[in-house]
């Protein structure tokens, strides 16, 4: 479990799934539960603004000696290598080093929580500086402690809070490591939550070797569910997508379908629609989502079939029978676009695999090709934009996550470039990036120097499948 965590293989995991947390994991390299407590707490505005992160990592990696301001404070800071990371430590510094009473320290805690809204830390500053000076601590130490107090006022964790979160984090990681199918299935049934869409969760779990099966009126329940492999209990079960994944389909319609199927299997599309009592909208949604393929053959036939469910007027009695009509099989691109439009994800080829020839002609590399490149290489990469973040603590820097057929690429866009190419940065669905490849301590980023909006390429996905062979 900890080996998985150290690799930042934490998509969907409580508290350590964000871009910032995943960048920290290979540096901090958690090996124990308390390491997770620190991990949860350290990627917060308080420690970042208080300039605690770099010293802690340097000391943890043995690049800087572990020192303490005094013997009295060694017990306060020992577990965090001489660096204050938790609110309780700040309160203990005030008591041990500045002579605060327990009541005064609690007032300081409440002041830290409220100063962003109404101020009120300055009178603590004078009291803190006077107490520290009286006990022999220099002004530089006092300034650093006060800046850290101000940082905690932005958002810092109590140690007890971080430990509670870390317990849930470890349990989540254990499930992801040892029961990935059940973990991902549960996440999908709990949406919306977290950083990742079901499309991203499915891409991640499939990269881990888990079979994901499409929405199918013959097998799907309302929620996604696990399907065992007959005769192979050791193998991770497959995930069957639930009817809930079909955008716009009501739960009442989905559950009526399941009840009708429980009585006896559906013979054909008409049998399903009549016995489940589905209205025209529900029938159309099932056809568009590809959920009727098992009964109709493919999407085009499914649409034709649901359109013929209602009894036709005499004027059209001479219309050709359903099985006499020859309908073309949808192209790969048409199926893909329909999947995203109605289910929000695809189990077919990744969109970028269909565009790889065009992307390669523009010198964009696949994400897996980047992994072996040396630090400092000049590269071009492209992918679907799955996340944009601009944290308050990042001084205007925007962090982007791109997804291609192999995985994800983390992109850093400095403020000046983001302002120069603001429209491309904000509006691109398929983004191309030129930049410098950086790999340090197992953390890889593409530092952007130029952005390209390649969204127009996605329009080619509706072409016939032969164009993508």
Rg on CA atoms, Å: 28 Å
- How would you describe the shape? elongated
**Classification by helices and strands:** alpha+beta
What fraction of the residues are assigned to beta strands by DSSP?
5-15%
Helix content, binned percent: 40-55%
| Nearest-integer average pLDDT | 88
Spatial order of the strands forming the largest sheet: 4-5-6-8-7
For the largest beta-sheet, the strand count, sense and barrel status come to: 5 strands, mixed, barrel
User: What low-confidence regions span 5 or more consecutive residues with pLDDT below 50?
Assistant: 312-318, 464-469
E-strand count: 8
Span between N and C termini?
Answer: 40 Å
Total helices: the number is: 24
Folded structure, characterized:
With 469 residues, the protein is α+β, with helices and mostly antiparallel strands. Helices cover 47% and strands 12% of the residues. The chain contains 24 helices and eight strands. A hairpin with an 8-residue loop joins strand 4 and strand 5. Helix 16 packs antiparallel against helix 18. The two termini are 40 Å apart.
